[in-house]
């Protein structure tokens, strides 16, 4: 527009003198880098309250300027709105965390928990409150509106591929898909464990098998509850059954 666009006034902004120039230098005779940075500077002023000496000098340039101002206004307000929402969410999350820690302090004082144990409890709570856990079905209320048929399809999609890593379920998927679908829908679920959580402990009755989807599990065997002559530890990785 500044060089080749139509002009009903015979003027273009590129043909004007550079502001504060003592040598009557015009924009169109300035170095290309200066022209480019001037155009970039002008574009940013359309989205912010900033200003600069470049002004539209014909109808086409002015219409283009008006369009840019409208687009800049929409962009600027959307950015401010998004930032405000994000800051509000962060503030609410911080307040909830502070309230939870304060309530924990009150509980520990009321129950007269020892200082060493109380410090361990508070440290672990603060660490875990700051972690972002993977979402499970319970964390997504929108899934509750699905029909049972669609829910079953979703469960098969989510759980079936993990079950079929075992040869038995792989054969079952070929022989009786309905049974595998029923197992996915009624007999399997996801659980999220953090560091130092126990998947199961010795002496407890097993409620089912476990499959490691992500992360690793440290499997410990002790002489008191196993045939091992001494304590042994084994790292169980992803896609493994327990």
Q: What would you say about this model in short?
A:
The chain has 242 residues and is mostly helical.
Question: Care to describe what's here?
Answer:
The protein has 242 residues and is mainly alpha-helical. The chain has three domains: 1-95, no CATH class; 136-192, no CATH class; 197-241, no CATH class. It contains six helices and four strands, in the order H-H-H-H-H-H-E-E-E-E. It has helices at 32-45, 59-110, 115-129, 148-163, 167-175, 177-186; strands spanning 211-212, 217-221, 232-236, 240-241. The strands form two sheets. A two-stranded antiparallel sheet has the order 1-4. A two-stranded antiparallel ribbon has the order 2-3. The model has no long low-confidence stretch (mean pLDDT 86). Keywords: Membrane, Transmembrane, Transmembrane helix. Residues 223-242 are annotated as: Disordered. This is Cyclic nucleotide-binding domain-containing protein. InterPro entries: cNMP-bd_dom_sf, K/Na_HCN_channel, RmlC-like_jellyroll.
């Amino acid at each position: 527009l500044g060089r080749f666009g139509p002009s009903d006034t015979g003027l273009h902004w590129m043909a004007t003198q550079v502001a504060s120039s003592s040598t009557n230098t015009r924009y169109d005779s300035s170095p290309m880098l200066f022209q480019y940075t001037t155009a970039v500077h002008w574009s940013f002023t359309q989205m912010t309250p900033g200003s600069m000496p470049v002004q539209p000098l014909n109808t086409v340039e002015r219409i283009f300027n008006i369009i840019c101002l409208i687009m800049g206004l929409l962009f600027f307000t959307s950015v401010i709105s998004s930032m405000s929402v994000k800051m509000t969410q962060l503030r609410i999350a911080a307040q909830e965390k502070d309230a939870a820690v304060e309530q924990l302090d009150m509980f520990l004082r009321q129950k007269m928990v020892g200082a060493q144990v109380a410090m361990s409890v508070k440290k672990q709570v603060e660490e875990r409150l700051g972690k972002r856990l993977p979402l499970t079905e319970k964390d997504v209320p929108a899934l509750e509106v699905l029909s049972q048929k669609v829910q079953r399809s979703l469960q098969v999609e989510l759980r079936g591929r993990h079950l079929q890593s075992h040869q038995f379920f792989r054969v079952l998927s070929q022989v009786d898909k309905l049974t595998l679908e029923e197992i996915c829908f009624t007999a399997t679920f996801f659980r999220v464990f953090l560091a130092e959580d126990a998947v199961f402990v010795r002496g407890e009755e097993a409620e089912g098998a476990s499959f490691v989807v992500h992360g690793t599990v440290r499997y410990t065997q002790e002489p008191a509850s196993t045939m091992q002559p001494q304590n042994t530890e084994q790292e169980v990785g992803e896609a493994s059954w327990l």
